[in-house]
Amino acid sequence: MEALLAFWDGAFGSAFAVLSATLVRATPLLFVGLAVALAFRAGVLNIGAEGQLVLGAIGASAVALATPTWPRALVVLAMLLAGAAAGGLWAGIAALLRRRFHVLEVISTIMLNFVAAALVSWMVRGPLQEPTRVYPMSESFAAAARWPFLVPGQRLHLGFALGLLAAGMLWFVLRHTAAGFRIRAVGAGPRAAASAGAVDVSRVTARAFIASGALAGLAGASEVGGVTWALYEGISPGYGYTAIAVALLARLDPRWVVVTAIGFGALEAGGAAMQRTAGVPAVAVQIVTATTLLAVLGATRWRARRRREAGA
Amino acid sequence: MLELLLVPFLEATIRTATPLAFAALGELVSERAGVINLGMEGAIIAGCLGGAAAALAGGSGIGYLGAAAAGLALASVFAFFVVRVGSDQIITGTAITVLGLGVTGTVFHLAPTLVGVGAALPTTGPIALPILSHIPVVGRVLFTQPAPTYALYVLVPLVAWWMRHTHAGLALRAVGESPAAAAAAGVAAGRVRALAIAFSGAMGGLCGGTLVLAQVGSFNENMSAGRGFIAIAIVVLGRWTPWGTAGAALVFGAAFALQYLVQSLGLALPYQLFLAMPYVLTLVLLATQRGRAVAPAHLGR
């Protein structure tokens, strides 16, 4: 009971809880949730949002540290581009392995998650380590690289607004553009899409994969720019895995990803509060995530969709 | 040179390959039934915790039993969803892994004494086999290992024989190739798949038990460290055969053991390079092996 009260207070109990805890934690989940939703829509099982997020954080940090004298708008823009490029590149490796060598992306993206973890561990002890070389972290970013807050006195930052924008754009692209139609067609049935003639299935999936990685990379950029203002090893407490639950629960609809990301943001924020005041460990949130996923699976019989995708 | 570097390296290769081989052998059996068990990682971490808790309660022998039981329990949930509910294998497996990591992490934080943080966990050290261990080089490498390694020396040939020469083994392979055809031939495809998953879970649990009781000597959060996913790569590299899987597990054991070798050589390379090595190796091997290997036709559906 005490734990539940702490959970509620931490997630929704006050304006501070909502604006500085729940929505701040929802921000990376929004980006990675969109990333996974986009990939799954195209029939790509991208389990690698975690690694793509980490690469995005490295890319954005490298830019932030290299441009201490630039004006803020320019630095933020450069960080976004670098984060997206690094995340897209990381997904691109898996996309290439899938397209050229027929390596199952489920395995390759998970392997790349571990490589990314080793890479960031090296970065914060090697090339990007702070100048005194004592702590495993980068130097703190200059003021220009710290993203603006949306509400004075609260920790909610620009990243959340950009996440909402990304959700809107992704929804529009998927729903109303030719590219979006091709992605949905490929995801719904690659053979049908190929035999219809107009769609190069392999190219569409590869591009969707890379775009998915870029979205996950933005999550990393937004974390270092809006929350930590420096690069750390533990930049993501498993956001990339939670993202699968976020996307599936939203039934891969970008509009609903906004809702489920905020839901899981509340879960994370409440979980953290629970750990602080009631001693319930925050990893318990993973049990909730997994149980939610299993419940959704039981309810929706995902398989029927996959059967059609496989053209069987 | 040989005694100082090569023998310890080979010894470490066998030692680190042992838990991998358990998990990969389990994964192999479930994949031959047409099921990719991505919940393997969860079964391993459950085995780590179950092994530690059971060993504290009843000694190291009970520890291995507890590890297998814990892996089996988690795999049963996976089997229920995949076989009974008919949910997607990949997503369900991911959920099972997250569940395993969440439950074990929570227990670790809430009841540290239960899993032996600081407490003396009964572990199983290397046993030198009589006569065999006196053979030069080979004796120390192959026959001075903890008990689970010896169990594998028996288990790998047994599974190979079982799969090839028994009726049940044939049923397993038939289900992996075509559940419909197997069912027409009178095989209860769903039951075969469920049993194969149960076996893979128990093997995953033993992988975790070996990690805790024969290698690390304590339980830690996330100590499975992706071995469940590496097991899947091992099966691909081993071309879905028991002997191939055992051989591929040795390759990965060597990749893990390489960091000890480099340490003893005193090379000034960042250690993260060697942390990443097994995972990079997985990618390279998958890219080069795929196409020549023959997967069960109905795998993943």
Automatic annotation (TrEMBL), chain A:
CDD domains: TM_PBP1_transp_TpRbsC_like (cd06580). The keyword Acetylation does not apply. Its main location: membrane. GO terms for cellular component: plasma membrane. It is a multi-pass membrane protein. It is found in: Cell membrane. InterPro entries: ABC_transp_permease. Keywords: Cell membrane, Membrane, Transmembrane, Transmembrane helix. One of its GO terms (molecular function) is transmembrane transporter activity. The chain crosses the membrane at residues 12-40, 52-70, 76-97, 104-124, 156-174, 280-299. This is ABC transporter permease. It comes from Pseudogemmatithrix spongiicola. The lineage of its organism: Bacteria, Pseudomonadati, Gemmatimonadota, Gemmatimonadia, Gemmatimonadales.
TrEMBL record, chain B:
This is ABC transporter permease. The chain crosses the membrane at residues 6-26, 38-56, 62-83, 95-121, 141-163, 195-217, 229-262, 268-287. InterPro entries: ABC_transp_permease. It comes from the Bacteria. GO terms for cellular component: plasma membrane. It comes from Pseudogemmatithrix spongiicola. GO terms for molecular function: transmembrane transporter activity. It is a multi-pass membrane protein. Keywords: Cell membrane, Membrane, Transmembrane, Transmembrane helix. It is found in: Cell membrane.
